[in-house]
Design goal:
Elements: E1 14-17, H1 33-39, E2 63-68, E3 71-80, E4 83-94, E5 97-101, H2 107-120, E6 125-129, H3 135-138, E7 149-152, H4 154-165, E8 181-182, E9 186-191, E10 194-199, E11 211-214, E12 219-227, H5 239-250, E13 256-261, H6 267-293, H7 298-304, H8 316-331
Parallel strand pairs: 1-2, 5-6, 6-7, 7-8, 12-13
Antiparallel strand pairs: 2-3, 3-4, 4-5, 9-10, 10-11, 11-12
Length: 338
């Protein structure tokens, strides 16, 4: 990335304000970053989760952007088969310590994020919010300070406890951090004069989905409830409830919606893409429902499904069969109740 590097012990970390995002298929140039940001519009943003299509290389990550004073998004690449895309975390620096929303997918990558944060502030990481309990957001949580306070929805805590207690868990696997503080619907933190709300807006990607809302800054970190141009991943989702959860988020007073995967684009683009994503979930449900109503078996539905423009989205090949299977479960009344 041709941009100023953050002060950080992580040599790959890049810090840039949200207004200097790469707004075309190639990263912005050092020569005139202000001019690029001024001239660009939402139409200039390449709408894809593919980092290479946008002109990035592996060396351009992790990417750190300051969304508002003291509020940062953190994007790091991860792999799913042959595809690469970003996992997104958010952290908030306050006088009373740092709050992190979602870790990364391995101890190595979470350690890299911890080091990057330490290069930006000397405040300790005091609070970690488990917004998604999936491993690509929690597998490295043991790298956070041992005295940090971990928060999760009861559903996510149960998932992590089951993982920690699993008799087939490899002996050399990183420890599972089981959150000690439960957020059933809402908790408001006041840290260094900053209000931070932890909210459960409904079951979506995992069933225990939390979001982190900063009302003064009008920023909402949605974690895996919002996948920017990534095919709706539903292996543990509640498809119809997911649509309602997104609509609840859209009804809030928010300027910047931060996804859990895909790029952190300018605020106007993120709002547009959240609606695009809501429509994508609706489309996947509708196509699968059509096939189910026609009496197709799950295997036949997977083979015959046509998701139109979503066919070109990242992870379509790996996630569409899982989504169809989950929607079949919902249609058959096989999903667990609230």
């Amino acid at each position: 990335m041709h941009a100023a590097r953050a002060k950080s012990r992580s040599p790959g970390a890049i810090l840039l304000p949200i207004t200097l995002l790469a707004l075309s298929c190639a990263p912005a140039s050092d020569d005139a970053p202000g001019a690029a940001a001024t001239a660009a519009t939402a139409d200039d943003v390449l709408r894809t989760a593919d980092p290479y299509a946008r002109g990035y290389t592996d060396g351009d990550f992790p990417r750190v952007q300051e969304l508002a004073p003291g509020v940062y998004s953190y994007e790091q690449l991860r792999s799913a088969g042959d595809e690469r895309f970003t996992t997104v975390s958010m952290f908030v620096v306050t006088e009373e310590g740092v709050l992190v929303a979602d870790g990364q997918g391995s101890p190595e990558e979470t350690r890299r994020m911890v080091e990057t944060i330490a290069g930006i502030t000397d405040r300790p990481i005091a609070h970690v919010i488990v917004c998604s309990d999936h491993g690509d957001h929690t597998a490295g949580n043991s790298e956070f300070p041992a005295d940090a306070r971990f928060y999760a929805h009861p559903t996510s805590r149960a998932v992590l406890q089951a993982a920690a207690d699993s008799p087939i868990r490899p002996a050399d696997a990183a420890p599972v951090v089981v959150p000690t503080h439960l957020v059933e619907s809402r908790e408001t933190l006041h840290l260094g004069g900053r209000e931070i709300q932890l909210l459960f807006l409904g079951r979506a990607h995992t069933g225990g989905d939390l979001v982190v809302y900063l009302p003064a800054e009008k920023i909402l970190f949605m974690s895996e409830a919002y996948l920017n141009r990534v095919f709706p991943a539903m292996r543990s989702a509640y498809p119809t409830e997911w649509v309602a959860m997104i609509e609840a988020a859209q009804a809030m007073d928010v300027d910047t919606y931060v996804p859990g995967h895909g790029f952190v684009d300018p605020p106007a683009v993120l709002a547009e893409e959240l609606e695009t994503y809501r429509q994508a979930v609706v489309q996947v449900i509708a196509e699968t429902t059509r096939l189910h109503t026609a009496g197709l078996t799950l295997e036949e539905a997977v083979a015959q499904a046509d998701f139109g423009a979503l066919e070109d989205w990242s992870l379509r090949a790996s996630q569409a069969p899982r989504a169809i299977g989950r929607i079949y479960m919902e249609l058959n009344g096989e999903l667990p109740g609230p």
